[in-house]
């Protein structure tokens, strides 16, 4: 009897120990119709032994663990049917699932994340995710779907000018935004001087904008990260889609190379304004050049459940020319090769080899002979990123190395030209980084995201490197051989975010992060220009540093139908760069002598209210902000507003599902005018008027106000093999002449008086596009 009791007690102990053991369930979530991985899908397990939840990563991979027992696994994703599975978790389990599209098709859905309460529970702050389906309904210039113009409608993001794609985030300059396309850096993200972005929306799968609390895996820029992921391609069947617009057309082809194992995607877009110019009877217009084209391509191959290879690339080119005057060509090239490897149910790896290049050429056509100015920046990048899932922790760690080459300017002249050839020395640098971060669910209420990024930069030879004094004169000059180190910088970048859930609907968050930047742009423009001059950190230019703190309140209500957030931030900026008055930036071998170095500060309040779904959906954003700079050689050493400083920014976006076929949408913006410098006096020199300026950026441009409208009509055969739709738009529907620039000049016939002349680019602009898919 004693033996039986002992045996039963032993079995009980063994069972108890077995039952307390934790096991992992992991896998990949895909679209059942196309085989595309689903980014950010919500995966939860719930049962008597407890519950846990997570979201799929950039490659659709998830990992959860729990005590041994029976669970119900639930996977949800916007516009997809929820998938529920009963799982008996008695060992590490791999479970790949495919979700069927079709949920909520009769209404419009807008979400910043795909876990309905992610905005409340996640410790991540200052992040917005764009739904590409929503992007199709937001009115933009010329009716072209545009990622960069849509993010300008979010709080904390300011546009670079009327109708342009340039943007500024929380007081940072345009070059302080890290823009990634399949992990490759895009240095110039605009077409046609900023009126179109380089991102063809047909080829884009996912877009995330980080404005604060930046995750440790990102670095190299001060203000924000715009992380854009291309479509993988359809693993199930071949499909074609595209559109014909008034000034541009596009087409995308995707399909399987081996069904359910390998896929491809190719997308192309081109404008045909130049064809219209050729047909013009006006001899002043006929023969001019104005076009851009771009090509996106991606290839994927699944070796097995543990290994997948991705190869993707982008090529874009702009051509603008005025006959007998100038030609201006510029473009981006990127290539990314990635290998995903699942070591086990808890450890996921992504290894990347990345190439990117940006180059421009300006050719001046003159009677004295033609000459051209060329410049480029080129990177080779290798990265290793890993994710480890363990109970309440998601740990990310990795290393990265980038080799930079900058060819500042090269002037080449024809044999008969009055100009001489000139070449400025190339500059080389190596940027290294290592990072680790941990997202820790401390309790049901408290979540932390903390880590550090270690950033190192080395300026390398060959070349002659001058050191300048405060007057811009050469204080020292030294020549270095190939690969020799000229200057080293090492800066740790701590990152910390925390979320405390007050209840299921409310949370407060706080964050601090430091970022550094070693690639800098010298520009006279508010937004990106093809002729922007790139320079590296050097013996004269120190790495730019930004420290940002933020505090936020987040609330959901009515079962996550409505979202509200309010964030305040303060940012300290070190080693900021400005150019001296009258500085020459292009083709200047001593351009570093033309620079001034100072500090900056930016602070603001961001409010965001959003209705996620229903026949009427949309959002309202408001930003109250201030951005200032301080340089010893400018404005008597006092703080002055940055050129892109604006006090108030308001955006309203509404999307209304009128019927199964008609969708109406509108957006309205109001912006305080940018800071500018107006003349305070003038004098005559040799009969010519010269204006006198005092405080820098002490004045304001007039405000900008604009209403845009659009309507989408779906074809009748919505559920058939072939589907088409029409998109109609009115940009600047109220026909307001918003300011682009203001120039001052003498009143004709009376040089004693001065008049201000405002230039406005756009009045009301209609657009129509026919979209198709089969």
What does this molecule look like?
There is one protein chain. The protein is mainly β and 774 residues long. It has two domains: 22-99, Sandwich (Immunoglobulin-like); 182-773, Beta Barrel (Maltoporin, Chain A). It contains five helices and 53 strands. The strands form twelve sheets. It has a 22-stranded antiparallel barrel. A five-stranded mixed beta sheet has the order 10-17-18-13-14. The radius of gyration is 28 Å and the shape is globular. The termini are far apart.
**Second CATH tier, the architecture of the largest domain:** Beta Barrel
Separation of the first and last Cα atoms: 76 Å
CA radius of gyration is 28 Å
The stretches of 5 or more residues where confidence is low (pLDDT under 50) are 1-19
The DSSP helix count reads 5
CATH topology of the largest domain: Maltoporin, Chain A
List descriptors.
disordered N terminus; 22-stranded antiparallel β-barrel; Immunoglobulin-like; mainly beta; Maltoporin, Chain A; 774 residues; five-stranded mixed sheet
């Amino acid at each position: 009897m004693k033996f039986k009791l002992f045996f039963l007690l032993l079995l009980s102990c063994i069972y108890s120990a077995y039952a307390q053991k934790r096991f992992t369930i992991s896998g990949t979530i895909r679209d059942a119709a196309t085989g595309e991985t689903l980014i950010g899908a919500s995966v939860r397990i719930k049962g008597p032994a407890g519950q846990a939840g997570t979201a799929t990563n950039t490659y659709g991979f998830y990992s959860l663990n729990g005590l041994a027992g029976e669970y119900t696994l639930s996977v949800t994703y916007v516009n997809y049917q929820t998938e529920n599975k009963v799982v008996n978790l008695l060992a590490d389990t791999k479970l790949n699932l495919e979700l069927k599209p079709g949920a909520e098709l009769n209404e419009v859905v807008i979400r910043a994340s795909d876990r309905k309460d992610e905005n409340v529970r996640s410790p991540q702050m200052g992040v917005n995710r764009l739904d590409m389906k929503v992007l199709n309904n937001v009115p933009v210039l010329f009716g072209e779907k545009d990622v960069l113009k849509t993010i300008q409608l979010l709080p904390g993001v300011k546009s670079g000018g009327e109708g342009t794609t340039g943007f500024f985030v929380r007081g940072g300059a345009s070059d302080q935004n890290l823009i990634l396309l399949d992990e490759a850096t895009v240095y110039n993200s605009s077409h046609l001087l900023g009126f179109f972005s380089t991102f063809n929306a047909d080829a884009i799968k996912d877009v995330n904008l980080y404005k604060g609390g930046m995750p440790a895996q990102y670095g190299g820029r001060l203000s924000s990260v715009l992380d854009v992921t291309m479509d993988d391609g359809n693993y199930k069947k071949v499909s074609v889609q595209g559109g014909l617009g008034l000034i541009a057309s596009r087409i995308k082809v995707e399909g399987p190379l081996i069904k359910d194992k390998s896929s491809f995607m190719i997308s192309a877009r081109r404008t045909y304004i130049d064809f219209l110019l050729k047909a013009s009877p006006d001899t002043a217009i006929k023969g001019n050049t104005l076009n851009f084209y771009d090509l996106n391509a991606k290839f994927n191959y699944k070796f097995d459940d543990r290994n997948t290879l991705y190869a993707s690339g982008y090529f874009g080119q702009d051509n603008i020319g005025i006959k007998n005057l100038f030609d201006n060509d510029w473009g981006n090239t990127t290539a990314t090769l990635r290998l995903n490897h699942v070591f086990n149910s808890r450890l996921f790896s992504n290894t990347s080899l990345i190439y990117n290049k940006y180059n421009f050429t300006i050719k001046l056509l003159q009677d004295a002979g033609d000459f051209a100015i060329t410049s480029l920046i080129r990177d080779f990048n290798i990265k290793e990123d890993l994710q480890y899932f363990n109970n309440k922790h998601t740990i990310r760690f990795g290393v990265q190395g980038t080799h930079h080459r900058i060819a500042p300017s090269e002037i080449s002249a024809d044999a008969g030209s009055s100009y001489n050839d000139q070449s400025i020395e190339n500059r080389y640098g190596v940027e290294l980084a290592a990072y680790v971060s941990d997202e820790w669910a401390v309790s049901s209420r408290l979540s932390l995201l903390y880590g550090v990024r270690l950033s190192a930069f080395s300026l390398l030879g060959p070349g002659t490197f001058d050191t300048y004094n405060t007057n811009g004169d050469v204080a020292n000059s030294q020549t270095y051989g190939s690969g020799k180190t000229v200057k080293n910088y090492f800066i740790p970048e701590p990152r910390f975010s925390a979320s405390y859930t007050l209840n299921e609907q409310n949370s407060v968050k706080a964050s601090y992060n430091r970022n550094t930047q070693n690639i800098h742009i010298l520009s006279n423009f508010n937004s990106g220009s093809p002729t922007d001059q790139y320079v590296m950190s050097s013996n004269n230019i120190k790495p730019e540093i930004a420290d940002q703190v933020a505090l936020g309140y987040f609330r959901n209500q009515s079962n996550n139908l409505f979202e509200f957030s309010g964030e305040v931030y303060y940012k300290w900026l070190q080693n900021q760069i400005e150019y001296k008055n009258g500085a020459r930036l292009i083709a200047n071998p001593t351009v570093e002598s033309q620079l001034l170095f100072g500090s900056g500060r930016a602070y603001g309040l961001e409010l965001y209210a959003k209705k996620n779904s229903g026949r009427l959906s949309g959002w309202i954003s408001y930003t109250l902000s201030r951005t200032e700079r301080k340089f010893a050689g400018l404005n008597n050493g006092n703080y002055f507003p940055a050129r892109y400083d604006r006090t108030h920014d308001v955006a309203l976006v509404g999307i209304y599902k009128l019927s199964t076929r008609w969708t109406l949408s509108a957006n309205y913006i109001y912006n305080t005018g940018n800071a500018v410098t107006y003349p305070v006096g003038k004098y005559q020199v040799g009969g010519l008027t010269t204006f006198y300026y005092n405080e820098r950026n002490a004045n304001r441009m007039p405000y900008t106000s604009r209403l845009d409208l659009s309507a989408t009509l779906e074809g009748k055969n919505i559920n058939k093999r072939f589907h088409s739709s029409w998109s109609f738009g009115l940009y600047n529907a109220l026909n307001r002449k918003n300011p682009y620039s203001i120039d001052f000049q003498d009143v004709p016939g009376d040089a004693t008086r001065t008049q201000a002349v405002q230039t406005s680019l756009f009045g009301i602009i209609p657009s129509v596009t026919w979209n198709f898919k089969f």
